Structure formats: C-alpha cells, structure tokens
Amino acid sequence: SVMSESSLLPDIMAQLKQNTCVFWVSNGEWSMHQMLMAILDKTGSAKLWLSTYAMSEKPARIIAQLKDEKVITELNVVLDNRVDVRTAGSLQIIKTIADKYGLVDTHAKVSVVRNDDFDIAVVGSANYTENSRWEAGVIIWDKTICDQHIVWIEKALANGIQ
User: Fold this and answer.
1) What is the spatial distance between Cα 104 and Cα 107, in angstroms, rounded to a whole number?
2) Distance from the CA of 161 to the CA of which of 11, 15, 91, 115 falls in 20 to 30 A?
3) Are residues 57 and 89 in contact, defined by beta-carbon separation less than 8 angstroms?
C-alpha cells in the first residue's frame, strides 16, 4: 500500500503500480471523471464497469465522448434508482451509450478499468459529479479484486431496472 503525499491527480497516478493500492484524497481539487480520464490515459482503451450513487451531466457527457472515441471499449453502468429524479439528463446519456446499465438501490462508488495489461479498481467516496468536496478512496491495481467487483456489478446489472 502507498499513501500519496499529494492530492494532485498526476502525483496520485504516479504512485500506481501493478499489485499496489494507492490511498488518495482529492481535497476538492478534482472529480471522479477526471480520475477516470487519468487512469485511461495510463491504460489506453479499456472496458469500464462502474457503480455510482449520483452522476451529473458533464461526467456523463465526458464518458459518452470517451465511448465514442473508443477509449472506453465497453461500458457497464450501475446507477442508483433515483438518478432519474435527481439528474434525468445524465440517465438519458447513459441509456444511449452504455453496453449495459441498470438502476438499483446503490450507494457504492466503484469503477473498474480493464484491458489486457491493466486491472484497476477505484473504490471511494466520490460520485460521478462535479464537486469541490473532500473525497477519499483507494486505487487498486489487482486482478482478483477487479474480478470480485465485476461479479457484483454484473449481478446488479442483471437485477436492475433497464
């Protein structure tokens, strides 16, 4: 395990190595979609599984652009079932671009980025929204942990409202 000495995203990403866990704190300086872009810069094109309690339109549009550009090659999204009440626009975007999506009772904030060379999971407090709050979590580069997250996300996708 590594604790990043910095809250700056490039410094956090520099700590990420295979079979490591990096603890991060955002200090309100960046949001989850920015971390996702930093991870994809490192991994190149990859599949994405994510679960989030909230998603605003700007992060949804950025994810849509990454999918259009084939940076995200497969998109699997679990959203809290009240997302349509809070941010209907983001739900409409996700519905049009996701390979699979499901609405369930979730508060889990997990993203898994996977390709032939990388298995990276982000687990933390940050939703896919723009915010200036302090958020904290871990980035884990570990195939087994990613496998475990993908299992429950796929189960939520199968059980969720489409």
Assistant:
1) 9
2) 115
3) yes
